[in-house]
Amino acid sequence: MPLPKAELHLHIEGTLEPELAFALAARNGITLPYADTEALRKAYLFDDLQSFLDLYYGLMAVLLTEEDFEELADAYLARAAQQGVRHAEIFFDPQAHMVRGVGIGTVIEGLGRALERSEERHGISTRLIMCFLRDQSAESALETLEAARPHLHRIVGVGLDSAEVGHPPAKFREVYEAAAALGLRRVAHAGEEGPPAYITEALDVLGVERIDHGLRCMEDPELVERLVRERTPLTLCPLSNVRLRAIDVLEEHPLARMMDAGLLCTVNSDDPAYFGGYVDDTFHAVREALGLDQERLRELARNSFEASFLDGSPEDEALRARYIAEVAEYSFD
Ligand code: ADE
Ligand code: ZN
To answer: Which residues are recorded as binding Zn(2+) (predicted)?
Structure first.
């Protein structure tokens, strides 16, 4: 049995496996520019974030109906259960679908249908986080939030993703203020490829509670001190960092040093269909590459629940306490 854990940094579109992509393409009468699943997998050689995003957005062409989104999410949850995931906070990119003529209601209701059955079917509690694409305009983000209003009961918070460099967090001040006024929680990708200053800006200007990635905080000791002091969770994605060439090899990943520095680190899979592993695979990989001992792994699992948004009600708190107790009781042999 894998270590119980929460997954807090997971793009649902990044769980689209080649087999499902081809099945959905056939069902929807779409021709993909790859001969077969093997040819598609061979294209998964990325130079950086942008080269990945080009493929990732392109493959979304197969996602058209509520059923497609429901199937995608259900397939992820089934895999996540096998990986010891007990709670998942799942990102989605509505703008990447709306530009293709797929309505935000189709996306959210389709995902929502899978998520509402998740506890019963997969034993996983879930939350949904709507991300704005930072390489689109601030107006587009505001329009997206407005379009999501009939579906906000399905969403716990907002995030910010896509091409980071050149798109600093402050561009999205207004939409984050509007989201906060609607009672939504706030997170943002920062310090993946972008500089440490983007992390500071996400905290100060957008008021985020967690930083997605945050890898590059290690270049700024004062920022590290602040993140430690404020106990700001970082949702790290080590396999993603290697595949997108933020670091050369997993053995050089700063995760262990970050934990030693007192940072509240979590380990996540980001876009597991593309990066060679789901979240427990990632735990195993970092254990091997960085020599993490059992107590470090247990700390990562406990952190994942502590950093989760399971704090909105007494029921949520009770669930979180139960998960944390499962981590404490877990036996590695
Ligand atoms: N969208 C999907 N995965 C992403 C990542 N790792 N960084 C930014 N945007 C993303
Ligand atoms: Zn991400």
So the answer is: 9, 11, 189, 270
Euclidean distance between CA atoms 279 and 268, whole angstroms: 5
| 3-class secondary-structure state, position 54 | helix
Residue 111 parent element (H or E): helix 104-116
pLDDT tens digit sequence for 136-149: 999 999 999 999 99
CB 118 within 8 A of CB 139: no
Tens digit of each residue's pLDDT (9 = 90 or more) over 286-323 = 999 999 999 999 999 999 999 999 999 999 999 999 99
Domain spans of the chain, in order of start: 5-327
Burial 192-214 (b: 16+ CB within 10 A, else e): bbbbbbbbbbbbebbebbbbbbb
What separation in Å is there between the alpha carbon of 267 and the centre of ligand 2?
A: 12
Superfamily of chain region 5-327: Metal-dependent hydrolases (3.20.20.140)
Q: Catalytic residue positions?
A: 192
* Protein residues placing their CB within 5 Å of the ion ligand 2: 270
